[in-house]
């Protein structure tokens, strides 16, 4: 058994599982903030029930995310002690900011939304929802700061066996921080909005809670379209940054072996061979488009893998496949939501059972895309754990044996299976329970959506 391989496998399992929950809460946080804003501005009772329902799902996901995040962080001190020594001075500030500022901001105001929503004023409740969304996004920012420094280190100097922080702002705003942050947040917004659209579509198919379901469907669809478009816009910005600062990763993502002027963009291809010489199968290419997308010039030269030592190449097949499948999923997501938008403009959104079923099926698509994007970023950085400074082979703990790591993998996997099953059980129970029905004397709007306030409906005064 290889201790390094097992340590990497354990980190993959724990991070991949943990990432499910922040992605959902960041997206749901935006949805809740939008719904609470509508409630605050319009005083309509339906937005109160809508916000209450989605906040319950947010809270369940948030709790499990916290539990899985603790396990993830402990690995740095157990399996990756030499890495922790090297980056400790750099990572201390952003990780402290994530815990002290972002996490407590999110958790404190979430407590108000859960336990004090009818004990505070309408404005305080609205502000709490906004701050929960801000806190979850800030948490993502500080984590991405730390991870981006691993991709494009800046603001440091190496002293002995560790990197020492010399410029806080240069380290925080290293070349990849903002492109990765914007792309990740857009992807998480897509995750949350697709969850809302999928659940709301399921309710409409079952004929349940039509007022909340119809309103949630429209809010989720609008956010899903915006988020899906932003994923492509921010993804393009991020890819340009990778082409400039991590050309070996970019070449692996594109399956480009030779440095090429006017490089074509691969629309479809089998993955490249292990030696980087390209695939033997059919290909669909767009001439010179890769050069234009990467550098804004159809004739620009794109660096190929041949320019780098073979020992510095990322795993080609996995980097290529995760990247291209991420793009494929993003395209499918955008097409599905644009189809819903087209139906909405024609007043047929709630009646199209085919599209509603498609929306239900597409619910996990952005979550899969997020996982593939993360895999592209981390696998594409290999063999470096800190780009150009420390190799992954040199980062593990020398005193932790392979059997010990294997035992912890089994233990954590069992724990995660239990946590995942519990989360799915509780989420299923909440979804089956559904949002609260309209109060007596308030007519439920037709399935075509929320249009006008019912004659007997009174504004709420929370």
How far apart the termini lie comes to: 60 Å
Across the major sheet, the strand order is: 1-2
The biggest sheet amounts to: 2 strands, antiparallel
Helix/strand/pairing category: mainly alpha
| Tally of helical segments | 13
Number of strands: 8
What order do the SSEs take from the amino end to the carboxyl end, as H and E?
Answer: HHHHEEHHHHEEEHEHHHEEH
How confident overall, as mean pLDDT? 86
Low-confidence stretches: 444-462
* Tertiary shape: globular
The radius of gyration computed from the alpha-carbon positions, rounded to a whole number of angstroms, is: 24 Å
Strand content: 5-15%
- The percent of residues in helical segments reads 55-70%
Characterize the structure shown.
This protein is mainly α. It has helices spanning 3-42, 45-78, 81-115, 122-151, 168-172, 177-206, 210-245, 247-254, 289-295, 316-345, 353-361, 365-379, 402-433; strands at 156-159, 162-165, 260-261, 265-269, 283-286, 301-302, 384-386, 390-391. Helices cover 67% and strands 6% of the residues. Strands 1-2 form a two-stranded antiparallel sheet. Strands 3-6 form a two-stranded antiparallel ribbon. The model is unreliable at 444-462 (pLDDT under 50).
Keywords:
6% strand; 462 residues; two-stranded antiparallel sheet; two-stranded antiparallel ribbon; 13 helices; mainly alpha; single chain; disordered C terminus; globular
């Amino acid at each position: 058994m290889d201790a390094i391989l097992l340590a990497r496998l354990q980190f993959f399992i724990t991070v991949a599982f943990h990432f499910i929950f922040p992605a959902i809460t960041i997206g749901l946080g935006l949805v809740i903030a939008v719904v609470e804003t509508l409630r605050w501005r319009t005083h309509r009772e339906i937005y109160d029930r809508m916000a209450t329902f989605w906040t319950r799902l947010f809270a369940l996901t948030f709790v499990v995310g916290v539990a899985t995040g603790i396990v993830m962080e402990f690995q740095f001190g157990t399996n990756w002690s030499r890495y922790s020594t090297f980056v400790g001075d750099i990572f201390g500030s952003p990780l402290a900011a994530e815990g002290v500022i972002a996490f407590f901001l999110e958790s404190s105001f979430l407590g108000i939304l859960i336990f004090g929503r009818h004990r505070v004023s309408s404005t305080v409740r609205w502000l709490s929802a906004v701050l929960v969304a801000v806190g979850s996004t800030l948490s993502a920012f500080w984590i991405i700061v730390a991870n981006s420094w691993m991709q494009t280190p800046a603001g440091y100097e190496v002293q002995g066996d560790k990197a020492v922080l010399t410029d806080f702002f240069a380290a925080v705003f290293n070349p990849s921080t903002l492109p990765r942050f914007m792309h990740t947040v857009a992807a998480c917004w897509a995750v949350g909005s697709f969850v809302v659209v999928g659940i709301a579509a399921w309710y409409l198919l079952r004929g349940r809670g039509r007022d909340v379901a119809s309103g949630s469907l429209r809010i989720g669809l609008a956010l899903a379209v915006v988020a899906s478009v932003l994923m492509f816009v921010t993804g393009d910005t991020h890819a340009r940054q990778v082409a400039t600062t991590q050309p070996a990763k970019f070449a692996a993502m594109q399956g480009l072996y030779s440095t090429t002027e006017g490089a074509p963009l691969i629309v479809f291809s089998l993955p490249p061979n292990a030696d980087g010489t390209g695939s033997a199968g059919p290909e669909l290419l767009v001439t010179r488009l890769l050069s234009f997308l990467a550098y804004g010039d159809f004739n620009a030269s794109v660096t190929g893998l041949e320019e780098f030592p073979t020992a510095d190449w990322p795993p080609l097949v996995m980097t290529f496949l995760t990247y291209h499948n991420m793009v494929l999923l993003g395209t499918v997501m955008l097409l599905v939501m644009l189809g819903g938008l087209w139906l909405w403009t024609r007043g047929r959104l709630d009646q199209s059972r085919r599209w509603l079923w498609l929306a239900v099926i597409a619910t996990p698509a952005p979550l899969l895309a997020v996982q593939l994007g993360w895999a592209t970023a981390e696998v594409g950085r290999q063999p470096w754990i800190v780009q150009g400074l420390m190799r992954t082979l040199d980062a593990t703990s020398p005193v932790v044996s392979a059997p010990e790591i294997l035992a912890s993998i089994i233990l954590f996997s069992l724990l995660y299976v239990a946590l995942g099953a519990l989360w799915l059980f509780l989420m299923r129970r909440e979804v089956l329970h559904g949002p609260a029905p309209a109060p007596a004397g308030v007519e439920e709007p037709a399935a075509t959506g929320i249009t006008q306030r019912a004659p007997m409906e009174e504004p709420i005064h929370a």
